[in-house]
């Protein structure tokens, strides 16, 4: 984690959780949660701020500002340390289970002495929970489900945390004299949605300075193995990092090997064998003579196998080698192809930054267009009204006239009601430049009801994009149960784009869903769903996911020039 903002956000969130677990004032917990979110989303580095600057951040009062200053000075917040001591470790472990709140965790600990996920499973098997006050069969079902989700996520980390850590380590190692090349490989280079461990590679003639440096990094908490070829460490937040130092001459072969995936590597090795070659992390060799035929760059290695270079996001054994042999690899969407973000929020609803600040941050990214899509009234806690939406539109149009080179679009994120209805009638929707429709409630409907609900929303002529279509949150909540092939077909038929939501906790659609949807002939929109200026760069994770789904810029409506996007939106109105 690079920014002090992120570290303080994590600490304050933990503090809020500890307050909630220990049964203190829930408003206090909420206050810390809000402050945590505001600090995480704050554009300036809090390390540069004094007490006055800190209290200018929304939800940060004097007492929280003092804690932040204490942290910046000493690296600790004594109150957080004290409440860590006060809450039994077992209870905290239980709250890691999605859906199991602090109050229930505390009851389980106090009444049944449960202090680990394993003990909880044991108690579930023995039907011990049923007799507890406030627990029933439904609670049991929920807990079982939550444990399943926790196991599924395992100890894997989200793409943004992995990327930030990897970039920090690569920057440190690159600075060491003798470093010829340095990059990360493995699942992170392939942009998988979660990362098991980091695989960092260095090309250099001597390995020791790099191994030494890794073990000495401030982020390193524990050295697992320290060798000349490979060193593994664990960070304070529990992430394993494997560093391998390769001779510069075998850089390409090593990079290819350690990027994987394992399944892709098996295919490439098979192909090598068929050509009378042998492929390893050191190079591509003639099987008979042992002569090294290619090893310096990945391009060399693939070329000697009769293949073009294959982008890492495609290396999952999903037909990429056959496509490469046929010369039919897709020309993948890149971050540079994206011309605008079509799903973003401001502080008119639950965003952290003003319309002006969000627009300025978008313009700084070089976008040709940018849509503001605050929440609609059916998400009751957002308190949206027609009047507010219209006032925002006026303000946005005025702002648009002052910005050169970027077109501001006025949109909204509608809520798909339980029966597929939307927040506002069609004549009001017609006034927006673009509407996104998303499911935000009633996640537990039957498959049939959920399917027709989503399809009905897509049939609305003003719904341009189906937002975060499955509503999953990685490690927290599974996607809704619906016949998504029917949904994708409906999107193709009605001209509704499917969102690839780039938020690292969502990545929704996922790579596999994108591949499925693409077969129906659908178009996509890669959006950040930004609630703060610092979320706009999440786009890269959406683009990575789109690449894993084999998308090209032709598949993605916000990679199109405004004229083509505008036609796409208009055509739907007139179907
Ligand atoms: P992860 O860490 O679980 O998110 O996934 P990866 O893909 O990063 O897997 P990891 O860290 O175990 O290994 C990195 C790459 O090294 C992997 O993608 C392919 C290569 N590799 C590791 N072990 C083997 C192996 O036994 N056979 C082959 N062919 N390749 C391997
Ligand atoms: Ca890995
Ligand atoms: Ca590894
Ligand atoms: Zn949403």
From TrEMBL:
Localization of this protein: Cytoplasm
GO MF entry, a single one: exonuclease activity
Transmembrane segments: none
Alphabetized InterPro entries for the sequence: DNA-dir_DNA_pol_X, DNA_pol_lamdba_lyase_dom_sf, DNA_Pol_thumb_sf, DNA_pol_X_beta-like, HHH_MUS81, Hlx-hairpin-Hlx_DNA-bd_motif, NT_sf, PHP_dom
Ranges where the DNA-directed DNA polymerase X domain occurs: 3-316
Swiss-Prot/TrEMBL cofactor(s): Mg(2+)
This protein's UniProt keywords: DNA damage, DNA repair, DNA replication, DNA synthesis, DNA-directed DNA polymerase, Exonuclease, Hydrolase, Methylation, Nuclease, Nucleotidyltransferase, Sodium, Transferase, Ubl conjugation
UniProt domain Helix-hairpin-helix DNA-binding motif class: residue ranges: 52-71, 92-111, 127-146
E.C. numbers: 2.7.7.7, 4.2.99.18
PANTHER family the UniProt entry points to: PHOSPHATASE YCDX-RELATED
Known function: Repair polymerase that plays a key role in base-excision repair. During this process, the damaged base is excised by specific DNA glycosylases, the DNA backbone is nicked at the abasic site by an apurinic/apyrimidic (AP) endonuclease, and POLB removes 5'-deoxyribose-phosphate from the preincised AP site acting as a 5'-deoxyribose-phosphate lyase (5'-dRP lyase); through its DNA polymerase activity, it adds one nucleotide to the 3' end of the arising single-nucleotide gap.
Record-given protein name: DNA polymerase beta
Organism expressing this protein natively: Streptomyces toxytricini (Actinomyces toxytricini)
